Amino acid sequence: METIILWVDAEQPDEVLIVRAAQAIRAGQPVAFPTETVYGLGADATNPVAVGRIFAAKDRPANDPLIVHIAAPEQITVVTGRDWDDLPAAARALAGAFWPGPLTLVLPKGPVIPANVTAGLNTVAVRLPAHPVARALITAAGVPLAAPSANRFGTTSPTAAHFVLEDLQGRIPLILDAGPCPVGIESTIVDVTVTPPRILRFGGVPAEQIEAVVRGPVERQERQHAAANHAAPAPGMLSSHYAPRAALLLFDGADPARLWAHIREIVAERAATGTHVGVLAPSEYAPGVRDAGALVVDLGPLGDDTTAARRLFAGLRGLDDAGAEIIIAAFAPGDGLGPALRDRLWRAAGGQVITVGGADGASS
Ligand code: TXA
Ligand code: MG
Questions:
Q1: pTM over 0.90
Q2: DSSP code at position 221
Q3: pLDDT tens digits, 25-34
Q4: Within 6 Å (CB) of ligand 1, which residues are found?
Q5: In whole angstroms, what is the distance from residue 32 CA to residue 147 CA?
Q6: Mutate which of 55, 59, 66 to test ligand 1's pocket (most atoms within 8 Å of Cβ)?
Q7: What is the DSSP letter of 127?
Q8: Is it true that the peptide bond before 333 is cis, omega within 30 degrees of 0?
Q9: What gap in Å lies between CA 330 and CA 16, rounded to an integer?
Q10: Cα of 321 to ligand 1 centre, how many Å?
Q11: Could you give the CA distance from residue 249 to residue 279 in angstroms, rounded to a whole number?
Q12: pLDDT at 358 (0 to 100)
C-alpha cells in the first residue's frame, strides 16, 4: 500500500483535502490526522472492520481500547447511547471546562460502538479535540473517529507527520500533515464512571485543574503499573510504553545543579569511549552537556513544562534517528504538566530511575 501525505493548513484546512480524507474514512480506511496533543490514527468508530485496520496497522494488541473522537458535544449521544443529562455530573463539568481540548473522559459505552473499540469493556473513552483539522475531519466524515496515537505499538507518540510516516509507511493510505502538534503529549484520561473520578493517565490538562472543576476529591497516583495481558483500566499504563530504540537513562535529584553536574560527568565518560550519547536537557544545562560531548535536545528553561511537553517526544525520536546509543534525561519537579512529563519519561526508561543526591553525589 502506498502512503500518501497531504499537507493541510493547521488553522484553515482546505475543504477539498478534508473531504478526500473523510471519503477514505467512510470507505472504512484508517487516516492519520493531527490533534493538538499528538497525531492520531482514525477510523470510523461505528465500523468494526475499519477499527480492526487500526489495530493491524499499529500492531496494537486487541486488549488495548481506543479513544473515540467527536467534533461536537451532541455526538456524545451516538457514543454513549445517553443524553448529557444521564451522564455523571463530573462528566458535564469537565467537558464544559476542557472541551474542546486535551481531556478524555471514560463514560458508559453505547450500543453503536463495536466491542473492538473498547476491547470488550462496557465503558468508552471519549475526547473532543481542539485541533481545527481533527474537528473538520470528524465533521466531514459524519461519524465519530476511533483513534489511538499514530505510532507502532510501544513507541513514542508522533508529534509530527514524518514520525507517523516513520512508523506506518506502507500500512495506511493517508496522512494529513498540519505540522507539529502544539501540546506534544497525550490527553489526560479521567474515568468519571467511578466515584470519586479517577485520573487514569496524566496528560495535557493538569490534575489540579481537574480537581478544581470537579470540586471534590479525584483519585490520582504517579507511576502506576498495569499487567500486559488483560484489558486493564488504562493499558497505556504499561511501564515499557513510549520506549525509544536507544537505552534511556533517567535521573532524579532534588538539586538540579548537582544533578546536571553528575550527568555531565557521565556524558564525558561515555563520550570518551566513543559512545554516541543523546541528552534531553533544560536550557540552563544544555551547553554544559554539549561541551561534554553529547548531542543535545533543549527542552526549554527549567520550569517551562509547556515547552518541555512540546519537545519531549520529538526529542526522543530525533535523538534515536540521529543515532544516539544511549539517551539521558532527568525528572523535573512540580505540578502542572510535571506529572505527565515524569510519567512519559518513566515509562520510556522502563520504570528505572537513578537518584542523584546524598553526601557523595550519586546513588541508586
Ligand atoms: O491525546 C490523545 O489522547 C491521543 C490523541 C490521538 O487523541 N490519543 C491517544 O490514544 O493517546 P492511545 O490509544 O495512544 O491511548 C489511549 C489510552 C490507552 O491507554 C487506552 O487504554 C485508554 O486510553 N483507554 C481507552 N478506552 C478506555 C476505557 N474504556 N477505559 C479506560 N481506559 C481506556
Ligand atoms: Mg498511544
A1: yes
A2: -
A3: 999 999 999 9
A4: 35, 37-38, 40, 64-67, 102, 104, 106, 118, 121, 123-125, 127, 147-149, 186-187, 189, 200, 233-236
A5: 9
A6: 66
A7: E
A8: no
A9: 45
A10: 26
A11: 9
A12: 57
